[in-house]
Amino acid sequence: MNIPRLAVVIPCFNEELCIERTVRQIFELFEHLIRLNKIKRDSYIYLVDDGSKDRTWSIIERLHYENRLVKGQRFVTNFGNQKALLAGLEAVRRIGCDCAVSIDADLQQDEYAVEKFLDKYMEGYDIVCGIRNDRKTDSLFKKTTALMFYRTMNLLGVKIPKNHSDYRLVSRKGLEVLELYNESYLFLRGFFNEIGLKTAYVNFDVKPRFAGKSKFNFYSLMALALNGITSYSVVPLRFVTVLGFLMAFFGFLVGLETVFEKIFLNNSPNGWATQVILLCVFGGIQLFCVGIIGEYVGQIFQEVKRRPRYITDTELK
Ligand code: UDP
Ligand code: MG
After folding, report:
1. Residue to mutate (ligand 1; options 103, 205, 216, 222; most atoms within 8 A of CB)
2. 306 backbone φψ class: left, alpha, beta (φ>0; ψ -120 to 50)
3. Which of 82, 243, 244, 252 has its CA 20 to 30 A from that of 98?
4. What is the mean pLDDT of residues 63-85?
5. Are 9 and 101 in contact (CB under 8 A)?
């Protein structure tokens, strides 16, 4: 296999404190990899400004005019990290590259793991997923929710790699497959796991964020998790069906028992408390189930409109 032209895709949302240093560090990585003959000299960085409100875009513009190996685009507004990643991967496929690596703007992921990613790529792997060694840098909240998410996904039969965030290498073939999928809300971790290309895993160390704060909040993490579940599993819907069936059966038994007591034992039950409890429990279960179905209806609603996945304001190539 020839030495690849590498594109590094970085989603950025209000990252004015990080970008410059991150770009410098990625260029240092490039120098290292070029010396080792692992990537071509025209390898480049592609930054996607996900509708930042700070100076992120003006910094990207300046970096681009200083060095054309910094490219990028700016969204008109904030579309979320998955859309920014997607836009970056689509753009580098258009511009041209042999493989692309996506990494966060805060460089929490050890960028030198890319060397190992490239070794796997040269061995013929199309996807190389970075797996974090530990979650020491995460808050307790993030640790618990992440664990819950992976447990749920596993339970639902979706085998996404554990502790893999979107730090991965994708070959050109992988990028071409990505173009065939035009879901509005593509859950990239699920997607790259599902398409069946040859996949390798590489462990890496996580560092604390060197500047700024996490750009995810409770709501956006929840949205990401729910999208992951509803995009890749219909098990919750089946669960509703089975639960409904069990409840109907239970109701039938209770009915039989009531009739039996009335006719044969002649003591009409005076279970006020029982009624209230049953009403609340069943009401709760029903609402919960309607909620699950609602999540899927919502997903369908978003998809059928076929709205553009993101809107680009400016592109620098
Ligand atoms: N990000 C984005 N759009 C968003 C939220 C985040 O492009 O709406 C980017 C962010 O700039 C960063 C990456 O996604 O490059 C990961 O975000 P962050 O480091 O804040 O997440 P965490 O490390 O806390 O999971
Ligand atoms: Mg981070």
Report:
1. 216
2. left
3. 82
4. 97
5. yes
Residue 104's pLDDT band, with cuts at 50, 70 and 90, is: very high
Is 88 touching ligand 1 by the criterion CB < 6 Å?
no
- Selected from 1.20.210.10, 3.40.50.10490, 3.40.50.2300, 3.90.550.10, the CATH number assigned to the domain covering 6-214+309-316 reads 3.90.550.10
Whether the pLDDT of residue 6 is over 90: the answer is yes
How far, rounded to the nearest angstrom, does the alpha carbon of residue 21 sit from its chain's CA centroid?
Answer: 25
pLDDT interval class at 30 (50, 70, 90): very high
**Confidence tier at 251 by pLDDT (50, 70, 90):** confident
The closest-lying atom of ligand 1 relative to the alpha carbon of residue 220 is 8
**Helix/strand/coil for 269:** coil
Q: Does 104 contact ligand 1 (Cβ within 6 A)? A: yes
pTM reported for the whole predicted model: 0.88
Residue 17: half-sphere exposure toward Cβ, Cα within 13 Å:
9
Alpha helices in the chain (DSSP H): 19-35, 56-66, 81-95, 113-122, 140-155, 172-180, 188-194, 218-232, 235-260, 272-304
| Distance (Å) from CA 14 to ligand 1 centroid | 9
Q: List the chain domain ranges.
A: 6-214+309-316, 235-304
**φ/ψ of residue 41, rounded to 5:** -65, -25
Reduced to 3 states (helix: H, G, I; strand: E, B; else coil), residue 252 is: helix
- Residue 246 pLDDT greater than 80, yes or no: yes
